[in-house]
Amino acid sequence: MTSIENLYFLTVNAGSSSLKINIFKIDSGLSLVLKGSIQDIGNDESPFLVTTEKERVLKNTKERCSNLAAAAKLFVQWLLLDEIPVNAIGYRMVQGGPAHRRPERIDNHFLEYLISIRSLASTHIPDEIDVISIFMDAFPAVKHIACFDTFFHNSIPPRAKYYPLPRSLWKEGIQKYGFHGLSFEFVMHHLQKTVAGEASGKIVIAHLGNGSSLAAVKDGQCVDTTMGMTPIGGLMMGTRCGDIDPGVLLYLLRQKKMTASDLEQVLSHESGLKGVSGVSANLEILLGLESENSQVAEALDLFCYNIKKMIGAMAAALNGIDTLIFTGGIGEHAAVIRNRVCDGLEYLGIRIHAGNNNSGELISSAGSAVKVRVVKTDEAYMIAKHMLSFF
After folding, report:
1. Which residues are catalytic?
2. What distance in Å separates the CA atoms of residue 242 and residue 234, rounded to the nearest whole number?
3. Which residues of 193-228 are buried (b: 16+ CB within 10 A; e: fewer)?
4. 43: which strand partners?
5. 141 to 75, 153, 300: CA distances (angstroms)
6. For the chain, what is the radius of gyration of the CA atoms?
7. Which residue in 46, 128, 141 sits closest to 86, CA to CA?
8. How confident is the model at residue 1 (pLDDT cuts 50, 70, 90)?
9. What is the pLDDT confidence band of residue 180, given thresholds at 50, 70 and 90?
10. N or C of the chain: less Cβ packing under 10 Å?
């Protein structure tokens, strides 16, 4: 293997309304050099922030940023202007279809393939293609590497992977892929480094944020997850509905005369916490309004109940549970949500300590049969770690 010390890896993570980058230096390991984000994309004043690993601010402005492609161009301009070293770029990819799960090099042929499968994640893949194309044009001489959110779930057995539909549809790629895989990978990486004994047990990981999903992990392998063929399914989320009766979709198509585009807009952007509350998908805003707004209270109750119910389903897939882990923006920061989710799961042996729930990683009580942890996820680190195998 060629020596890779002193190389710089750029990671790119495109969200629904944000674009994040990180730069790691390869020395004795992976060292974070800087991190940047453009938030609230689509607004006239999108915060553009870049800091060093020690939080020294390198850029802090408000930019007019209409979409993810515009955000990518802003990052490229900044990187080139400040002559930031870049030797390889890794991208978080939501989906690569049934044939592409492992990290791989990106070329024009692969981009054409992504266009052919865009219907598997139509609200994500087109934007990701735009972002990749912009960085490839700006940095044509470096390696570009796709890291798929579906890779972690490649171990899911057929009984959990396939829908009870005609087998002819299975062959077209209609199956459960699972998402948030890079986040789940990092959590398992963290466990293996800090409490290796727990990493081989029966684990339910709850990645809770604007997008949310659970993963059931046994002996280090994923055996089931809540998201399905697309990131719309599974848990109730910020603006996505999660699992619903397919008959509801038929009703909306037939009785409401919705088009496929109308349906996608409702299911992906107007449902979840935003749709039920009628106010917002922002958890902090909703918690502040809960005591005075019954619709907001119902939305939060439905959100927590949905997670609690699905934890039970994941525990059933595992035939028990040894460790429950909260991660993601809500999972890491919303102690009140963690408390509400765990309240009522005593039958599984889950009990959290009120004091610990407000700080620290281990939040379960001394008498809890199940370890309950809060782990700060790091998808960028996992992307960079995967990139090492290409050098």
Report:
1. 149
2. 4
3. eeeeebbebbbbbbbbbbbbbbbbbbeeebbbbbbb
4. 41
5. 18, 32, 48
6. 21
7. 141
8. very low
9. very high
10. N
pLDDT at residue 43, rounded to an integer: 83
Which pair of tokens denotes residue 97? 């279809």
Query: Domain boundaries in the chain?
Result: 7-148, 198-374
**Residue matched to tokens 């897939």:** 317
Q: Where are the beta strands (DSSP E) in 226-267?
A: none
- Region 240-253: what's the mean pLDDT? 98
Fold for the domain defined by 7-148: Nucleotidyltransferase; domain 5 (3.30.420)
Q: Would 7-148 and 198-374 be classified into the same CATH topology?
A: yes
Rounded-to-integer distance, Cα 322 and Cα 51, Å? 38
DSSP state of 97: T
pLDDT per residue as tens digits for the range 324-379: 999 999 999 999 999 999 999 999 999 999 999 998 899 999 999 999 999 999 99
- The number of beta carbons lying within 10 Å of the beta carbon of residue 8 is 16
Q: What is the CATH number of domain 198-374?
A: 3.30.420.40
Judged against a pLDDT cut of 70, whether residue 316 lies above it is answered with: yes
User: Given the DSSP bridges, would you call strands 88-93 and 202-207 parallel, antiparallel or unpaired?
Assistant: unpaired
Q: How far is CA 37 from CA 62, 199, 378, in A?
A: 11, 31, 14
Other beta carbons within 10 Å of 172: 9
Quote the CA–CA distance of 331 and 353 in Å, as a whole number: 16
